[in-house]
Design goal:
Elements: E1 4-7, E2 15-17, E3 27-30, E4 33-36, H1 55-66, H2 75-82, H3 97-116, H4 136-139, E5 147-155, E6 171-179, H5 181-187, E7 190-196, H6 202-209, E8 213-215, E9 228-230, H7 231-238, H8 251-265, E10 271-278, H9 280-295, E11 308-313, E12 319-320, H10 321-330, E13 333-339, E14 358-360, E15 366-368, E16 376-377, E17 381-385, H11 399-407, E18 413-415, H12 425-439, E19 461-464, E20 467-470
Parallel strand pairs: 7-10, 10-11, 11-13, 13-17
Antiparallel strand pairs: 1-19, 2-18, 3-4, 5-6, 6-7, 8-9, 12-16, 14-15, 17-20
Helix pairs in contact: 2-5, 3-11, 6-7, 7-9
Length: about 475
């Protein structure tokens, strides 16, 4: 694969110097992100289509032939393609400027969850949002985003761990927002966005570490036992404070109620439902997308559905091959933005996953093992970044780094923002396991295969690559 070597003068990943003389062969560069030619895959997605008449696809072809890097396509006219109506065909490789702009924009909405989350133990709003719904966008510097927050979302994991005092209670996990009338003119539709933060509290860490598959059973009229998801994520999504008289409803109940309300309020308008999340939050986003479409909440009439799209940043696998297949049947569109060096994107099922247990014969012939339905499988189209810092391994999962690398300004160097937004997953997980073991008085050590190394590298280099892979 073509790549670009980026020599780093510092070890804290605060400044990256791009070599002007280093140019990968047979690749297309947008900003400082190198986009290699797509390699032919052994199998094609069953929902994969090519729409020749797509205005975005036509603009991509024109830009490729002319060598122009500027986009003249209006979002208001091409938003369906940007939302994945054609599975991002001809938009990921090379990465279309309009799509990159939208990925960054939705990434900033997810980043807002971290910026607004109160981590001060002495605060009255500890583990909740610092601001009211009315003031949140203004307080975090996104007043001009064109969206208004309509509801805060809370999640209650039904998980008991030895180091936790008291019962689990609902913690702020994200928010629902809707495009304003002014933004509708620019976006071409009324966009309903639901965003989720990554893992913070101890029960949430445990939910991430659980790996057993369990039937989702979200449709009461058809339980579909072959559609299975990770039990920890399902617990976060469906558990409520039933033991409390004035307790919160489940994350699922809150979300479905608000989405239904907004769909009814703006009935008759051109609508889209966009879900975005980082790490664990991307898992909740995908579960909600599946839930909305399985229940048919996005169905306008017998022939029209409101598009449902997920933008996943550094997300793990959520369900089995049955879950993947059902999401594709329902028309859920998922764009997964992942760092190839991020271990979280390879979990759960680092070994036992659908990709490893699929025997490929040709593009038209493939064989699956009988037990492949019990293995994890990724859903959607993958946009792969490649970055790593030997001196700070946690950056591989940091949302700020993801967004900064996507922005890639056209200048010899760029700043990499590191706000530790979900980036310290490995260290936090290791610390939690250690505390749990100590609480149970167990004298054993659990090896972490990707633990940080204290060895100082002679030279620190970041290899930055972007490629597309349709799973």
């Amino acid at each position: 694969m073509a790549s670009m070597n980026i020599h780093m003068p510092n070890t804290n990943l605060n400044h990256v110097a791009f070599s002007e003389t280093t140019r990968p062969l047979r690749s297309v560069c947008i900003g400082q992100v190198c986009l290699p030619k797509r390699t032919k895959l052994a199998t094609a997605s069953p929902t994969k289509q090519t729409v020749v008449a797509s205005p975005v696809a036509i603009e991509v072809a024109a830009r490729a032939s002319s060598g122009s890097s500027t986009s003249t396509t209006s979002l208001s006219h091409s938003w369906r393609e940007i939302q994945g109506s054609d599975n991002w065909e001809n938009l990921v490789d090379p990465l279309h400027p309009l799509l990159r702009q939208e990925i960054i924009r939705y990434g900033d909405f997810v980043k807002a969850c971290y910026n607004a989350f109160d981590l001060d133990p002495n605060s009255k709003r500890y583990l909740n949002c610092k601001y009211s719904k009315r003031n949140m966008m203004r307080e975090i510097g996104m007043e001009s985003s064109g969206y208004e927050v309509t509801k805060y979302i809370y999640a209650t994991p039904d998980i008991n761990i030895p180091i936790q005092n008291g019962e689990s209670c609902g913690r702020w996990i994200g928010y629902v927002a809707v495009a304003t009338d002014e933004a509708v003119k620019r976006l071409g539709r009324r966009d309903i966005i639901i965003t989720f933060r990554g893992t913070v509290t101890n029960p949430e860490w445990v939910a991430n570490l659980m790996s057993s598959l369990t039937p989702a059973r979200l449709d009461p009229h058809n339980e579909r036992p072959d559609v299975k998801v990770e039990s920890g994520f399902l617990s976060l999504y469906t558990s409520d404070e039933s033991n409390s008289r004035f307790g919160l409803g489940s994350c699922r109940e809150q979300l479905l109620s608000e989405v239904s309300r907004l769909l009814n309020k703006y009935k008759g308008e051109e609508l889209s439902i966009t879900l975005a999340g980082h790490s664990m939050g991307s898992s909740l986003a995908l579960l909600l997308a599946y839930d909305i479409t399985e229940l048919g909440l996005n169905r306008v009439n017998s022939s029209t559905k409101t598009p449902v799209t997920v933008f996943s940043f550094g997300g793990p696998r959520v369900g089995n091959s049955g879950f993947k297949r059902r999401c594709e049947e329902l028309g859920v569109k998922v764009l997964r933005i992942v760092n190839v060096n991020d271990p979280i994107t390879k979990m759960p099922g680092m070994v036992f996953n659908h990709e490893n247990f699929r025997v490929l014969g040709s593009e038209r012939l493939s064989f699956e093992f009988p037990w492949s339905c019990s293995c994890y499988a990724h859903v959607g189209v993958e946009l792969v970044l490649d970055f790593f810092n030997m001196q700070n391994p946690s950056c591989v999962h940091d949302l700020g780094t993801y967004i900064s690398l996507l922005k890639c300004p056209k200048r010899p160097s760029m700043e990499i923002q590191r706000d530790n937004q979900g980036g310290d997953f490995v260290n936090k997980a290791k610390e939690l396991l250690s505390n749990m073991i100590s609480a149970q008085n167990l004298n054993l050590q659990l090896p972490i295969p990707w633990r940080s190394s204290s060895t100082t590298a002679e030279s620190n280099m970041v290899n930055l690559q972007v490629q597309s892979q349709r799973t």
